[in-house]
Design goal:
Strand content of chain A: 15-25%
Radius of gyration of chain A: 21 Å
Largest sheet of chain A: 7 strands, mixed
Largest interface: A-B, 27 and 21 residues
CATH class of the largest domain in chain A: Alpha Beta
Distance between the termini of chain A: 31 Å
Helix content of chain B: over 70%
Number of domains of chain A: 2
Order of helices and strands of chain B: HHHHHHHHHHHHHHHHHHHHHHH
Shape of chain A: globular
Oligomer: heterodimer
Radius of gyration of chain B: 22 Å
Chain lengths: ~325, ~425
């Protein structure tokens, strides 16, 4: 397995385990420790190795926009360093990078806090909220709503066993009452649901939301019923590059055996779903509640900014 | 040669071969052999019951309950992950700290439990870092066997020897610490020298450092998902410490080690009622292992009764008059047998033989040395081959499951020469102390 494939697999495993935002935090803390432990004196060596790492991060399958975004900012700091060498050498720029990482982590915490506050404000007494993705933003918003004394109930649309178990653990810990319904049986309870809260991995250049596998069916079903569907996502998660069809979807084929008959068959699983952003009614971001039109405008603005950067620092067209 | 002699010998040889070639579970074979000894009237039922060393059985049972509850508390996995973090991905530190951890765990827990806790983490870490996982797995198997040889409770042969010879927990540590630490240091250094490439620092490689730290984070998420419950962990650690203190002060307390172990187990069950179920704890006792021991004790008593063990001991005594040669014979014989066969039946057979040899020794020599030769040979000999000890089999199975396949010959490439080195170090030790 190449380094590139290894990092991709590691990212995918961690994302499945803890979700994107926490994964980003783990990546940043790992980078901090790696830089701290790095013992090579030459400035050029450090820059070269950081660039190699950045290239790997940029090309993981699937690409993780939140992580890439942070590496973009860090690379910008190093590009400045190359333009203005410092007498302390790479140690000075290491310090700068460590400071920047500290700043990213602080910013994310604050942005998330704002998003959670805004998310909790959407909960009304008597609401029945359907959740599906393992999203810390959704779960924290629900916990905040509960702490604020809102009376509501949650239905978990059952998906991958591990993710569903984690949702159950978190809701139990927050003392929020819930029921679990398999995601393919949601039609039987769709009348009860007043709101759908979902988390996402990213928004790509086709304006598709990338989220947990199974999300497309859930969103489509409640969109048809005109039940408001809320998507929780930091705008930092935007994928600021031209997306291709393969991005954000990892296919895994396994051969399985029938439980008690001598039959083997191929089973295909996908890591993520892509859902057109227009199917969501509201977007809860660190900037508050947004419509799909607002979100699209924000995305275009950021995409243009990043394009300018890319041209400046990577000489990309 | 009388009829009973032939019957007893045939039953034992057939049972032994059936165990070696694993035609049936060894517990069934041992119990079957014991039953045949009774049916053919080599032993009557009363004699069979009296031949069971209940001290060994009860000590094993007590330790199984203690170790199982301690593992359930998650404290060992937690410690494992913390040590992984402390290494900061430095290969030589991973090697050194995990070698020490494995030895300590193996000395006080059983070797199989130790490897069940350590191997998945070490494979996940070293494989992810692109290091030679095979080297780490083989090294830790060796350290597990070495650590297990240090204490009375570390390895089943020591439990059998300690119980039969009435040796205390401290006797084992006092007499075996010098050869065991010498073996650990020499083997550890040899392994490191042979695999220096895998232990080279990675501090000049940012990509490797990054992936290593990320892996450590992943391991922490994966292996310590359940938060430790303070009260459960405190109870487990307190009772484990008290039990170990009980072993250390056994001669002052004047209780057999089995009573101390069972007291610890029952106390832990009482204290942790909220977190554990007595039914589950009792169900997790390895009953087949205990019945294997029971059957074995009965069969060996049958051999003793028909005079076969007398013949073996007289043969050994007749071979040499020199005590050092006798010690080395027992050390190397038990070492070689343990490489190829299960060391438990061998040690069980050797117990009465050693007693008889001791009876013929002059008063000027220390007769307990024979027990240490048997213990070192049986425990360290297990390092030689992949089938030499249960911990080897379990560890190689776990590694294979995690994608690291280690073949028989590949293991032997390290295991066999290093076991010969270990037994040679023990030989030098006996030469010095005699």
């Amino acid at each position: 397995m190449s380094y590139q494939e290894h990092i991709s697999k590691l990212f995918l495993d961690i994302e499945n385990e803890v979700g994107i935002t926490k994964m980003d935090d783990l990546v940043l803390s790992s980078l901090c420790r790696a830089i701290h432990d790095y013992r090579e004196c030459s400035e050029e060596d450090f820059f070269a190795q950081f660039y190699e790492l950045f290239e790997t991060i940029k090309n993981t399958q699937p690409r993780i926009s939140l992580v890439i975004d942070h590496f973009f900012h860090l690379w910008k700091i190093l590009c400045d360093a190359q333009a203005k060498p410092h007498p302390e050498g790479h140690l000075f720029w290491e310090k700068k990078i460590l400071q920047a990482i500290k700043g990213f982590r602080k910013n994310i915490r604050e942005e998330k806090k704002r998003m959670v506050k805004s998310g909790a404000a959407q909960i009304k007494n008597g609401d029945v909220i359907l959740v599906h993705s393992l999203s810390s933003s959704v779960l924290d918003s629900l916990s905040r709503g509960k702490r604020k004394g809102k009376k509501f109930r949650v239905i978990i649309a059952e998906q991958e066993v591990e993710k569903t178990q984690k949702l159950i653990e978190k809701l139990t810990k927050s003392r929020i009452s819930f029921q679990v319904v398999p995601e393919y049986m949601l039609t039987h309870i769709e009348g009860e649901v007043s709101k759908v809260f979902l988390g996402a991995v990213t928004l790509n250049s086709n304006l598709n939301i990338v989220g947990d596998a199974g999300m497309n069916a859930v969103v489509s079903e409640f969109h048809l019923r005109k039940t408001p569907v809320y998507l929780f996502m930091l705008t930092r998660k935007f994928s600021l590059w031209k997306s291709s069809s393969s991005h954000h979807r990892y296919k895994a084929k396994t051969t399985r055996t029938h439980g008690y008959m001598p039959i083997t068959f191929e089973r295909i699983k996908f890591s993520h779903d892509r859902v057109p952003h227009g199917l969501f009614d509201f977007f809860i971001t660190e900037q508050g509640k947004m419509t799909s039109k607002d979100l699209s405008a924000e995305y275009q603005k950021r995409f243009k900014e990043r394009e300018k950067w890319r041209k400046e620092f990577f000489k990309e067209d | 040669m009388d009829f009973l002699f032939v019957i007893a010998l045939t039953v034992f040889i057939v049972s032994f071969l059936t165990m070696v070639f694993e035609f049936y579970d060894k517990a069934i074979v041992a119990m079957g052999g014991a039953l045949l000894m009774i049916i053919f009237r080599v032993l009557d039922f009363e004699e069979a019951i009296h031949s069971i060393d209940f001290e060994t059985i009860v000590l094993l049972m007590g330790m199984m309950i203690l170790v199982d509850l301690a593992s359930d508390s998650g404290v060992f996995s937690w410690l494992n992950v913390k040590i992984t973090k402390v290494t900061r991905g430095r290969p030589w530190m991973i090697y050194g700290l995990f070698a020490v951890l494995t030895m300590v765990f193996s000395a006080f827990l059983d070797n199989v439990t130790t490897m069940l806790i350590i191997i998945p983490i070490i494979v996940s870490l070293t494989k992810g870092m692109g290091l030679n996982s095979r080297f780490f797995v083989i090294s830790l198997i060796l350290f597990s066997n070495i650590g297990g040889a240090l204490t009375l409770i570390g390895d089943p042969p020591n439990i059998i020897i300690g119980s039969a010879a009435k040796l205390t927990f401290n006797d084992f540590i006092i007499n075996l610490s010098v050869p065991i630490f010498a073996v650990a240091v020499v083997l550890g250094s040899l392994l490191a020298a042979l695999n220096w490439c895998s232990l080279r620092p990675i501090c000049g490689n940012l990509r490797k450092l990054f992936v290593t730290h990320l892996l450590i984070e992943k391991i922490e998420q994966k292996f310590v998902q359940i938060k430790l419950e303070k009260s459960f962990v405190t109870s487990v650690l307190s009772i484990l410490c008290l039990t170990l203190l009980g072993f250390v002060f056994q001669s002052v307390l004047n209780f057999p080690v089995s009573v101390i172990a069972v007291t610890g187990a029952i106390a832990l069950l009482v204290i942790t009622t909220k977190h554990s179920s007595v039914h589950e704890s009792f169900a997790k006792i390895e009953w087949p292992t205990l019945f294997f021991f029971i059957g074995l004790f009965i069969m060996v008593h049958g051999l003793e009764k028909v005079g076969l063990l007398d013949m073996i001991s007289h043969g050994i005594i007749g071979f040499t008059d020199d005590y050092l040669t006798l010690l080395l014979m027992i050390l190397w014989l038990s070492g070689i047998v343990s490489m190829l066969l299960d060391n438990i039946p061998f040690v069980t057979v050797m117990i009465p033989v050693i007693f008889q040899i001791q009876a013929t020794l002059p008063g000027t020599v220390d007769p307990t040395m024979l027990w240490w030769a048997l213990s070192l040979g049986a425990c360290l000999g297990g390092c030689g081959t992949p089938i030499g000890a249960s911990a080897n089999v379990v560890s190689l199975g776990l590694a294979k499951k995690a994608g690291v396949k280690i073949g028989f010959l590949e293991y032997m490439k390290y295991g066999l020469p290093l076991t010969i080195v270990a037994l040679s170090i023990c030989s030098v030790y006996f030469w010095i102390v005699i």
